[in-house]
Design a protein that fits this description.
By secondary structure, the protein is α/β, with parallel strands linked by helices. Helix 4 packs parallel to helix 11.
Length: 327
Amino acid sequence: MSVSKTSLAALLLTCGAISAAFAQSTATYPSKAIRIVVPYPAGGGIDVISRVIGERLSRRLGQPVLVDNKPGAGTILAAELVAKAPADGYTLMVTSDSTLTINQHLYAKLPYDPVKDFAPITQLVLLNQLLLANPAVPANNLKELVAYAKANPGKLNYASYGSGSQPHLAMEMLKVQTGMDIVHVPYKGIPQAVPAALAGEVQLTFSGAASSQAFIKSGKLKALAVGGKSRMALLPDVPTFAESGFPDVPSNAWFGLFAPAGTPQDIILKLHAEVTHILKEPEFIQKEIAAKTYELVASTPQAFAEFLLADSARNARAVKISGAKVE
């Protein structure tokens, strides 16, 4: 999908669209339970942060906020469900870049439009990914991994959390740039992919530090590289992809909150205000941001809309260079 002024205008209009059928004031919303759809299995970072936000949002709004895990099909099942849900503020989605800025470049056809079908509320956090290896892999950094993989084509495999996910795209880009032959094994989510690497079912995977730092420090997994502009404070000995010679590998992801397009603007703004208040609470920052090595964003709906278009352009380039496609 190309990025244009027309696309930006359409996305910003989506952010501000008011549906007459569901128009209501912030004084009456919410009057019943809110559902947050998460396109990944329970237990992963995106699920955990959604549940913590949901619990705190429930207390602030005085209504139940329920997390509904709908994994499968590279987040497409959940995205289609939310895109077709009533635009009344009672069905939301917390998802990653796969859904809104990667899938359209990987799939020939999607049952949802990433620009027209969703109203961005806020970008929650950035997540810098670690490339992890089972200890049996005779490599302690990217240079050694590339040498071993090229000498043993097809012998290594790697787990992603689904075809078209950020780890899938990152490794395919790395393979193109190095000439490595490594087999892709898609799983439903990080809670499945990391244990697969621990058990030796796969030799490599990607994960955020929150899901893997204990295994790295105990020697059960090796961290070969990390995404982001600088090294991680919790893992200062792990070089970045850029330091390792691969600055173009898309090695970070983001989590964001969305509503169906047409959700009244006053509801969008109320949810934005409540959720960003939660994100900036000192206790939340300490326990859910700093401890899990996320980078806090808490952007406005408009800033998030503009970010989505820029991120889509970056991922379009990455997909084209990598040659990754999903049937």
